[in-house]
User: What shape does this take?
Amino acid sequence: MINLGYYYTFVIGKRFYISLGAGPGCGASYTYLITRFSGEKSYTGYISPVFRLQERAGIGYNSIEDRKVRAGLRYYTASFMGVNDSF
Assistant: This one.
């Protein structure tokens, strides 16, 4: 799988930040399956293109004076999609 992404952090007033990003990717999945039923064997192969999208977002606070207070939330998700082509 190959992914390329872009992520950026916006700093607001030296204390707050908002971070956003996305990373789309693509690749291939290969599956070779042997099915045995009633003494017979069935061979099936799949080559599947696979697509993925990673999304990230975050917000946070960082105190300037003592640097002892830090807080933040982060959100991450990844979506997968594939298509099977039998041969």
Notes: Strands lie at 2-3, 6-12, 16-37, 40-62, 70-82, 85-86.
